[in-house]
Amino acid sequence: MNAANNAQSEKKKIIFSGVQPSGVLTIGNYLGAIKNWKSFEEEYDPIYCVVDMHAITVRQTPADLRRRTYETLAVYIACGLSPEKNTLFVQSHVPSHAELNWALACHTMFGELSRMTQFKDKSAKNAGNINAGLFTYPVLMAADILLYGTSLVPVGIDQKQHLELARDIAIRFNSVYGDTFTVPEGYIPPAGMKIMSLQEPAKKMSKSDENVNASVAILDDRDTIIRKFKRAVTDSDTIVKKADGKDGINNLINIHSCFTGKSVEEIEREFDGRGYGEFKLAVGEAVADALAPVRSEFDKLMADKPYLESVMKNGADRAHYLANKMVSKVYRKLGFVARPR
Ligand code: AQP
């Protein structure tokens, strides 16, 4: 980003979000998050992070984490986020995230963190590793957001509770120390954007699900995508229509609608009398068609590591500049003595 762009974008409101490189990104991450990000790039100054520090709240294989960090950045770009218009960087490259995390942790209550449903869900899934980071995850997320004076945070509905906590922490800090943080608003995509597991449709689709048929990766090839949709769990009915108790079909209709832009009513009319088999195939084909260009762009990007590293570096330089200013301000307000020059 050049100096003129920098000056221009500094006037725009900041939008911030991120995805953990904790697995291969799913169509849930795509529809609930990344796909929407592009629409903000003219109006806002967008900052998108690969949140690798969050990913280690669950045990990762280091080599996989390293590879997925590159892959996640490449997915951001392949989904249309140009590094010229979006600040794209890796969380651990900017030490201010860890620094602000501590300051905010000392202003977050144990009881607040205990109420977080993601902590309860992830503790149940990782019973052998209920570490303190899993518990304080929302504090680091608050630091990510508040560091940049963020006005808007586009996240899936599953992250709403964490975002509300970030707002509460900002308000609390501001009331004690005076105006410091912008209190962020959430942008939760319209209803239907919570994409559910294909195997257990009452559960969110997650990239770390051990059942490979439960999620569809943005980078799955065409045959894999179609096969997974053919195997999707539905019900004993045969009518393609949204209804209570038809979680599997409701989810497939949502996915079809998100990828084709057709309304639920149009889809129900189109598949009237055609049965689940034909519908599942059509959903698979629609998803595979929509993701094909993303996959081919991703392959090109992954073959050019120096380019990805230049994006990481430029993004981290700018993020560091902004975040470091905020940390200095917070330290000053807290009463920390500035390091003598
Ligand atoms: N199934 C989903 N439907 C809609 N939005 C989703 N998001 C994730 N899954 C769905 C949104 O993707 C963004 C990034 O999520 P994340 O990687 O930071 O963490 P997560 O929400 O915990 O996502 P996963 O895929 O479930 O990761 P793992 O398996 O590692 O825990 C967020 O905006 C999220 O709302």
Describe this structure in words.
The protein has 341 residues and is an alpha/beta fold. It contains 14 helices and five strands. A five-stranded parallel beta sheet has the order 3-2-1-4-5, with helices on both faces. Mean pLDDT is 94; it is low at 1-5. Bound molecules: adenosine-5'-tetraphosphate. Adenosine-5'-tetraphosphate (AQP) binds at residues 19-20, 22-23, 26, 28-29, 31-33, 155-156, 158-159, 193-195, 204-208.
| Principal-axes shape call | globular
**What characterizes the major β-sheet?**
5 strands, parallel
How many β-strand runs?
A: 5
Low-confidence spans: 1-5
Distance between the termini: 30 Å
User: In angstroms, what is the radius of gyration?
Assistant: 21 Å
Helix-strand category: alpha/beta
The string of secondary-structure elements, in order, is: HEHEHHEHHHHEHEHHHHH
Largest sheet, spatial ordering of strands: 3-2-1-4-5
Bound molecules: adenosine-5'-tetraphosphate
Query: How much of the polypeptide forms β-strand, as a percent range?
Result: 5-15%
Report the total helices. Answer: 14
Question: What key attributes describe this structure?
Answer:
disordered N terminus; 341 residues; alpha/beta; five-stranded parallel β-sheet
Topology:
Blueprint: H1 3-11, E1 14-19, H2 27-37, E2 45-50, H3 52-55, H4 62-78, E3 87-90, H5 96-105, H6 110-114, H7 117-125, H8 132-146, E4 150-154, H9 160-177, E5 185-187, H10 222-230, H11 247-260, H12 264-270, H13 275-302, H14 305-334
Parallel strand pairs: 1-2, 1-4, 2-3, 4-5
Helix pairs in contact: 4-13, 5-8, 5-14, 8-9, 10-13, 11-13
The chain binds adenosine-5'-tetraphosphate.
The site of adenosine-5'-tetraphosphate has 22 residues, from α2.
